[in-house]
């Protein structure tokens, strides 16, 4: 399927509400649970998404528009959320993410991008030359990856409780491929 900006923004608009419905009001035990080892909790994922809203997606869109390949993107710190205040309630993080996302989508719309802009290129510090279209599509898929991750983390809290039905619960039988990930935490690498 070809990336269309209107459809992409529809998905991006929904992410905060999806996360709010999945996570808001859950007991702290659920919010902070992980899949074991150095995997991320729901709290960690929301913190990561916040950091991406501030430093990654829209700043990179603007860099492509303003500099093209004349200036490389700043490297994205996928673990920045762990250096933030870890005492804030998840509700505050969810509200912050929703505010940032809304602001970024308003700013994205104000750029009045057309299909002719999608072939513009920029330089990713690891991936090399990337197009604006690839960046925008990656923003959507990154959101969906983390929604899936949160769902998986929550489901795995009852892995032992489902008994023999575990064999039929695909979400409980997935493994995380960490072969290319030094931290073992983030399945989506912006």
Short description:
The protein has 6 helices and 2 strands. It is mainly α.
Distinctive features:
Four Helix Bundle (Hemerythrin (Met), subunit A), 49% helix, elongated
The domain tally reads: 1
**What is the C-level CATH assignment?**
Mainly Alpha
| CATH topology name | Four Helix Bundle (Hemerythrin (Met), subunit A)
Task: State the major sheet.
Answer: 2 strands, antiparallel
CATH superfamily: dinb family like domain
- Compressed to H and E, one letter per element, the order equals HHHHHEEH
Distance between the termini: 21 Å
Please state how the strands of the largest beta sheet are arranged side by side: 1-2
Mean pLDDT: 92
Fraction of residues in H or I helices: 40-55%
**Residue fraction in strands:** under 5%
Regions with little confidence, pLDDT below 50 for 5+ residues = none
Q: From the helix content, strand content and strand pairing, which structural class follows?
A: mainly alpha
The rounded Rg comes to: 18 Å
Q: What's the total helix number? A: 6
Give the tally of β-strands: 2
CATH architecture: Up-down Bundle
Q: Give the overall form.
A: elongated
